[in-house]
TrEMBL record:
Assigned protein family: Belongs to the Mediator complex subunit 7 family.
Keyword Coiled coil included in the entry's annotation: yes
The protein's name: Mediator of RNA polymerase II transcription subunit 7
Organism the protein comes from: Prunus armeniaca
Subunit relationships: Component of the Mediator complex.
Cross-referenced InterPro entries: Med7/Med21-like, Mediatior_Med7, Mediatior_Med7_sf
Amino acid sequence: MRLIVVWVIEWWRCRWRCQCRDAKETVFLGLNSVFGRKVLAMATATYPPPPPYYKLYKDYLQDPKSAPEPPPPIEGTYICYGGNYTTDDILPSLEDQGVRQLYPKGPNIDFKKELRSLNRELQLHILELADILVERPSQYARRVEDISLIFKNLHHLLNSLRPHQARATLIHILELQIQRRKQAVEDIKRRREEAQRLLKESIGTLEDTGASFVLK
């Protein structure tokens, strides 16, 4: 049964990657656009070629005014390396993304409870998918969609915790810095006391040596 569950998870991941790739091409470039496919291939290549507009700057050294002005700052959504990004640093809701929300709405969400609930539901759906693949292979699509919906809700809940995680990480970093500075101050005090002790011993030794010379 464990092997079946692992196989189902890997199969779902492969299918999800294909769906994401096809959706990306459909939304941003169009499946029937040859130019769009070429642009996406260039943008997502391991070593992408320089963008074609570099030719506009070929005479920049001889005549800087011949080059176009820098583009204005981007606002809103934009495409970078084949992915869709936005300048608004906010987490869109599931409804804005067209995804059904499986956990309660509102600001007072028990994240631990909802994550555990979705995780249990995900396990049950994966086991049911394994049974369907054995008994009714042609009816797997609905269960895969349910699993995809659960994963999207899980990811959205986890992303909702990112600001809290960032604050906790920053607090931890600041506490470590304060601790290191306190240790550095204590080390300086300890070395200062040691230097003062050595200085007093040296002065005492010199005074004793000078007194002995005077007596002689």
